[in-house]
Amino acid sequence: MSSYRRIKHVDVNEYTGFVMRLLDNPGEIWWHAYDQQISNSARSVLLVLHSMNGKCSFDRLEKAYVALDAHRGQKYGYAIRPGSWRSALRELTDAFVSSTGSGLTFINPSVGDLMNKVLNSEPENAVDIVSAATEFQQYQRVCTIARSSDANELHSYLNSNAQKLAPSIEILAGLNQSYKYETSELWFTQSLDYRVATLLEFADSSQSPAILKIAVDLMGKEMAEDDSMDVDPRLKILNIIENAGWEKIQNLYNLHSALKAKMLNPDTSHAWSAEIFSIAEYSIDNLLWSDADEKSFEALCEYYFSDCFTDELSGCSEIQEFESLAQTVQEIGEANGWDVSAELSSIHEPLDEMTRQEEMRADATQGEWRGGGQWW
Question: Which of 198, 203, 195 lies closest to 249, judged by CA?
Fold first, then answer.
């Protein structure tokens, strides 16, 4: 912040104001170093890492970096040299990024602020990220940043380039990729529903027929699959269609009806208590919620309580999990006027026993401490 190169043009009487401006906008602290002091390849690393939400494993990051750096090198005319990946890491480590052991993360949140500024002030960077992306979540991340309140320029620029980006987005949308969480042995795959929701939001914003076609085609693929899918992204898609500003999305009646029917079908809806409650909330004062929908929802709830509730209850192992399930089941009962006293009793029996054991352990620990005598 106070390096000579940064402050040499600042009048001594304006120095305090200069520092306060930097503190008010942390991204400014990093701008000079990003713009003047690191290589193009290092910038590619930062752009890719930002598109991965600021944290990524080395293998995924390197793959995405190679694609983006090659794209930017050809587009902007800079040479890609052997070893540029490792050289870029050396430039950035302990300055912009730090190692997690298995990957990289921004050294602090203000680097993320800087990269938001880079994308908004030079939005062609976002177009480059999407054009060369190796994972759908990179495109999704750019869209999320563009929807933030202080990214109007980026938002407009992406909308105006929607048709140009459509071929790259179509490839990304069709990828069936699985990723490993850095902090565990768990793997995750982003469902088609989540991808469709992102595409529909962008289609509505850009009013791009090409993006809308990708979204509709992908949803057709999802509807043809037999696998159960999550409720939450489906509710998001329904809400996007119902609240869209673009008439072509508002007119997706058949898609809306088919998606809702599949969501309410016990054979294809992965709905436990939290999802059941989300559907109940969605139905309130919804003009598109019909009597037939209500009957299907009641059947879904009956299926949950007869076939799924016991499984969800047996999966609870901590007091907070039992309490959360009890609260959700009670809310479902109150929202629908149902008697869920039997289900609540089956939750409170193990919950009360676990609470009693926790209190006994706490009393025993306190007793041991009191009986240990004084150390002096």
Answer: 203
Is pTM, for the whole model, over 0.90?
A: no
Domain count, the chain: 1
Name the residue with tokens 């057709």: 220
Say if 310 falls within a structural domain.
yes
User: Which pairing describes strands 103-106 and 178-180: parallel, antiparallel, or unpaired?
Assistant: unpaired
356 lies in which domain range? 264-368
Would you say residue 357 lies in a domain? yes
Other C-beta atoms closer than 10 Å to the C-beta of 91 total 17
In a domain, 121, yes or no: no
Mean pLDDT is highest, among 4-18, 19-33, 146-160, for 146-160
Q: 109-121 and 152-160 are packed helices; what angle lies between their axes, rounded to 10 degrees? A: 50
Does some domain include residue 219? no
Which range has the worst mean pLDDT, 5-14, 78-87, 292-301? 5-14
Sequence-distant (6+) residues with CB within 8 A of 133 are 51, 64, 67, 68, 139, 168, 172
